[in-house]
Prior knowledge:
Layout: H1 2-23, E1 33-38, E2 42-43, E3 49-54, E4 60-69, E5 72-80, E6 88-93, E7 102-112, E8 123-132, E9 138-141, E10 146-149, E11 153-161, E12 165-174, E13 177-182, E14 184-185, H2 187-190, E15 195-201, E16 211-218, E17 223-227, E18 230-233, E19 239-244, H3 246-259, H4 268-290, E20 311-314, E21 319-324, E22 327-333, E23 337-340, E24 346-348, E25 353-360, E26 366-371, E27 376-386, E28 393-394, E29 399-403, E30 414-420, E31 423-425, H5 427-430, H6 433-451
Parallel strand pairs: 2-8, 10-18, 19-21
Antiparallel strand pairs: 1-3, 3-6, 4-5, 4-7, 7-8, 9-11, 11-15, 12-13, 12-16, 14-15, 16-17, 20-23, 21-22, 23-30, 24-29, 25-26, 25-28, 26-27, 27-29, 27-30, 30-31
Helix pairs in contact: 3-4
Amino acid sequence: MRKGRVLGLLIFLIALGYFIYQYTPLIKKNSISITVYSPKDYFSANKEIKIHVSDKNAGIRSIEVKLVAMNTTITLAKKEFSDNFVKEFDLNFKTNKAIPEGSATFVVVVKDYSKNNYFNGFEKVVSFPVVVDSTPPQVILLSGTGRIRIGGTALAVFYAKDKDLKDVFLGVRHDGKLERFKAYPAENIFGNKHVYMAFFTYPLSKLKDYSTDIYAEDMAGNIATVHIPVYYNSSKQKVSRINITDAFIRDKVFVVLQREGLPLKENLLSNFLYVNDVVRANNTKKIREICSHSANKILWKGRFSQLKNSKVTATFNDKRLYYYKGKRVDVKYHKGYDLASVRNAKVNAANSGIVVFEGYLGVYGNTIIIDHGMGVFTLYGHLQSFLVKKGEFVRRNQIIAITDTTGLAGGDHLHFDVLVNGYYVNPIEWWDYRWIKTHILGVIDESKTRLSLIRQ
């Protein structure tokens, strides 16, 4: 009799333990996991919602996504599963619903197929506050139609307004790529904090399928795009033949490799090709990084100055064919102007600005880079010595350096570049007062007139 009672009690305890384990939340815990990738702080009906849900123990029963705004609950999406085989699920969708803008609460409710929690199954809720904003920024082009030659510079002025503006830039599409040009606030010029200026160029391309647009994005991810009509033309390209000698490689290329801390290659030609290709590409990358940060105002005034009493020995976009022992071994395009004067000539700053780099820079040798504001820079290469320091403000025609043959210079001269947001442009325009007056000052005046017609 006593054995029967003990056995019965044992069976009861086992059954009770199984019930507690299987059907209560005391031991088996809620295994539902919810990850909301978007939205975060802002919600837009125009942007995709991305949510990942998993329940590896019991399987997902249902997913419901809601938005609670102005005491109203709006169901954005609901997904139910007929069995417990779905352990993970990615819910990606656009609402495409009219939702009142303002403060709201984003809610995700997930239930599983568990018999736990007293046969009710587990439920997990994730909720957080969001700002509903489905209206893209307001963008108005102020500068009208642009005109540009390949490698030239153009200026776009536009009005961009949003209560939560995140990013604004000018983009040039070509060859399947999007080149970004920074848009700088121009309140100090226009007296309006919503006006931006962007200098841009058309990077060299064989296809010439350029498309220019303004992009403005708010914190909710709404993007406004405004097309800029730009007319462009190309110019005749000069072709030069450059013979590379063993003496040039030993005297010039070896020095560049040594200054860059690089070992010599297996033969003389390999050394030249490495410097002309790899080192030059790395130099260009570093220059672009240096030119990625610019003063938020125009520091220059009037046309830019050429090296005094200099003769042009190479122009922008010259096609250079390199020959070694009668065989063509490389092709490059000259990105600036070579200016020759007397030996060890005094180098004048092309215009006022801030020195942002002074040091050795591979194929350019001793180099100075000046920031003239709003993304415009000048570069001075093949220098002997520096007469200014990084961080120093220089004025137009101030003597900043002495010319020499450092880097890959075959003779004493100045290599001079103009860059816009790190992209090489043709310096000849910036030396021309009429071009400055028409394509920059005239564009600014025209934009001021159009801005006066906008209802603020």
